[in-house]
Amino acid sequence: DEQFESLPTEVSKPKGEQHPETCVICLSDFKAGKILVTLPCSHVFHKDCVRTWLTKKSETCPLCKESV
């Protein structure tokens, strides 16, 4: 959990300004004002989604499988 807390976070901006993607964990678009986490591999996810993924599913990125 300490390792997760050290990952960089940011507040998402309106679509098109930064990450116009969808969170591949929950399949929802990034909406303005939501907290996002960037993994060391540079993939970005909703904070709550990636926290659950890393603590309950796997300690790897859901996209590229790089160890976190």
Layout of strands and helices, then pairs:
Layout: H1 2-5, E1 9-11, E2 35-38, E3 44-46, H2 47-57
What does the model show?
One of its GO terms (biological process) is ubiquitin-dependent protein catabolic process. InterPro entries: RING_finger_E3_ligase, Znf_RING, Znf_RING-CH, Znf_RING/FYVE/PHD. Helices cover 22% and strands 15% of the residues. The longest helix has 11 residues. The model has no long low-confidence stretch (mean pLDDT 85). A three-stranded antiparallel sheet has the order 1-2-3. It has 68 residues and is of the alpha+beta class.
Task: Report a brief summary of the structure.
With 68 residues, this protein is of the alpha+beta class. The protein is built from two helices and three strands. The chain has helices at residues 2-5, 47-57; strands at residues 9-11, 35-38, 44-46.
